[in-house]
Design goal:
12 helices; five-stranded mixed beta sheet; alpha/beta
């Protein structure tokens, strides 16, 4: 019978391709890494790696396939056993994008640590696509994602509908100029967007023409936080999900709701047939409470828009430009 600790060391070594790094990651000494590999080769009676340069043998490649599946299945099994045992000790891994974790998870996490002090929370800051993959692989117990497609290994639960907003100065001016057939090379429209290979861009790109801007520059940044910062600094207009306009950010740039853009959803993914522990269910309850809080930015923007239409407030009024 092959020892699970030997297999785990072998899988880690195959990934890192370095004995010293493997020892560091597994909190072992380098001689112990070599010993685990030696024991595994003796038990299987085949050579598993070549050292100079490092590569897996054909036998090593075959063992790696089964070892990865075995370790992943045991991790999933342990997670379910923890849930069935009410799980008051151990680790809970959450995967979410930076903007979701900062705006929706901080307060629920604080309440979680008070209620479950024996559980160590681990947070993977990542994209929605990567969060789903982490849950699928068993490396995360719960993933918060946007626009998750139905997927056989995963179960998706929607928490709220997400609409899109434009944050920044100049959108109405650019739209009016475009409608009049005019242009100004010194004031060219600039949209601040996430990278073109993100799930967000796949959602909003087909709708950008609805802004009524025949031509514009695209400024790509790496996070929603960066979008907000550059828009606040006056470098263009950021197209962002409504929940990102949190009152804690104290934004001053004007916000325009993009009603013509198709909405999407924010929710969480778990594995199919995954047993949810009492701790996870409680965390999800607190996240739902955080989501249901009133949204002052959008509420004020709607009210002021109606006042502009009725002529009670001029468009250049500072109240319309910020809150």
């Amino acid at each position: 019978m092959l020892d699970i600790h030997w297999l785990n060391t072998f899988v880690t070594l195959a990934r890192l391709q370095h004995f010293g790094q493997t020892a560091t990651e597994l909190h072992m000494t380098q001689p112990n890494v070599s010993l685990h590999l030696k024991n595994l080769e003796q038990a299987t009676r085949v050579r598993l790696i070549e050292r100079s340069p490092f590569r897996l043998t054909q036998a090593g490649e075959r063992l790696l396939q089964s070892a990865e599946r075995t370790i992943a299945e045991l991790q999933l099994c342990q997670a379910d056993l923890n849930a069935l045992g009410q799980f008051s000790q151990g680790k809970l891994a959450i995967a979410a994008s930076d903007i979701i974790s900062r705006l929706l998870l901080i307060q629920p996490f604080q309440r979680f640590k008070q209620a479950f002090p024996g559980i160590d929370l681990t947070l993977f800051n990542t994209t929605s696509d990567q969060a789903a993959e982490l849950v699928k692989a068993g490396r995360a117990d719960l993933g918060f994602v946007m626009a998750q497609k139905r997927s056989e290994p995963l179960f998706y639960t929607e928490l709220q509908q997400v609409t899109w907003c434009a944050l920044g100065q100049g959108l109405s001016r650019w739209q009016a100029r475009a409608k009049a057939g005019e242009s100004d090379p010194l004031d060219e429209p600039t949209l601040i967007l996430l990278g073109h290979d993100t799930r967000t861009r796949a959602l909003i790109d087909p709708s950008l023409s609805l802004l009524g801007l025949p031509s514009c520059r695209i400024m790509e940044v790496g996070s929603v936080d960066a979008q907000l910062d550059w828009a606040e600094a006056g470098f263009g207009v950021a197209i962002v999900p409504d929940f990102s306009l949190h009152p804690r950010l104290k934004l001053t740039a004007p916000v325009t709701e993009l009603h013509d853009f198709p909405s999407t959803s924010l929710g969480y993914v778990v594995r199919q047939n995954q047993v949810l522990s009492r701790a996870i269910k409680q965390l999800l309850h607190w996240v739902e409470e955080e989501i249901q809080r009133p949204h002052p930015y959008l509420g004020l923007e709607l009210a002021l828009s109606e006042q502009v239409k009725e002529g009670h407030v001029k468009e250049e009024d500072p109240k319309v430009k910020g809150t």
